[in-house]
Structures are given as C-alpha cells and as structure tokens.
Amino acid sequence: MRIVIVFESMYGATEQVARAVADGIDGAEVVNVDHAPADLTGVELLVVGGPTHAHGMSRAATRESAAQRVERPMLSRTGVREWLDSVGPVPRGLATAAFDTRLEKARVLTGAASLGVAKRLRRLGCRLVVPAESFFVGTDPADAGPKAGELDRARAWGAALGAAVRRTVS
Q1: Cα dist. 93→16, 44, 129, 145 in Å?
Q2: What is the rounded distance in angstroms from the CA atom of residue 101 to the CA atom of residue 87?
Q3: What distance in Å separates the CA atoms of residue 150 and residue 93, rounded to the nearest whole number?
C-alpha cells in the first residue's frame, strides 16, 4: 500500500508531527509540500497537514509574516493550499486524512487549517477516512515545537488511521 504524507512546515513542528504520524502508520513516505507529487496515481492513502495561520491554511502573506519572526530559513516555501490547487487528477474516492498544528486554545479562537485541507480534499473527490485532527504547539516562534505528549498522540492517530484504511482496503 502506497501511503504519502504531505506536510507544510514553517519552524519544524508540523514536520515533526508528520513524521510521528508516519511512525504510527508504518511504511508511509513523508514529503515536504515543496517536493510533493502532482500525480497521485498509485497512492492509496494521502495524509495532508500544515500549520494554522490566521484561522486557516497559510497564504503567501502569512508565510512571509512567519518568516519575519525568526532568523532562519523556512522549511516550506510553498503552502498546502497552493499544492492542493495545483495537483493533477486525483483517483476518485482516494482515502485521505487532514491534520494541522495550532495553539492549544478553543478552535473558535485559533481556527484549524485541517478543516480547510479536508474541505479541499473533498472537493477533489477524495474520501476522508477519519475526522480532521489538530496537534498543539508552543507559542514561541523560535521554539514552536509540539507540546509534550503531542508526538505520541500523532503516532497513535497514525496507527488508527492506518488500521482504518487497511480494513477498508482488505
């Protein structure tokens, strides 16, 4: 089974979560959105994740603002939003899942990029196999890594996601 996890990450927290999800799924390939495939032929599970910026998926302006907060290069130059808009034909009914990283506050206050990702995946004809998920990060841009326990939670989410897809494929 070919499983692809595409992530967008500014400071590395979302990449860490993506890799933890992959650890839980076992056998997934993890790809920075800058190098994500435009052709999803042969992919049986697509997982897409990114940081929450201004209540949703990042945009060029929010990435620029994020870049100005720290003195190091951003990990992703492209956003999940742009990649999803540019992806070629998607196999009908492709099994997918969406996640984001965000501050640990009520979703009504922070928003959640995963909801926008999930909506775009559905518009492409994909089938969400689990509800969109958020993983929480710290507040200091220079060290905005996942909060304690979030990588374990991401591994468990990945394991549950992998099991759900394998049940539907078998």
Answers
A1: 28, 10, 10, 33
A2: 22
A3: 29
H-helix or E-strand containing 114? helix 113-123
**Structure tokens given for 30:** 């993890």
Residues 80 and 60: their CA atoms lie apart, in Å, by 11
Q: Hey, is 91 helix, strand or coil?
A: coil
Render each residue's pLDDT in the chain as its tens digit; 170 residues.
899 999 999 888 999 999 999 999 988 999 999 999 999 999 999 999 999 998 999 888 888 887 777 766 667 778 999 999 999 889 999 999 999 999 999 999 999 999 999 999 999 999 999 999 999 998 765 566 899 999 999 999 999 999 988 877 65
Conformation bin of residue 26: beta by default, left when phi > 0, alpha when psi is -120 to 50: left
The structure's pTM equals 0.93
Domains of the chain, earliest start first: 3-169 (3.40.50.360)
Closest to 79 in 3D by CA, of 66, 91, 88, 70: 66
The residue with tokens 């539907």 is 168
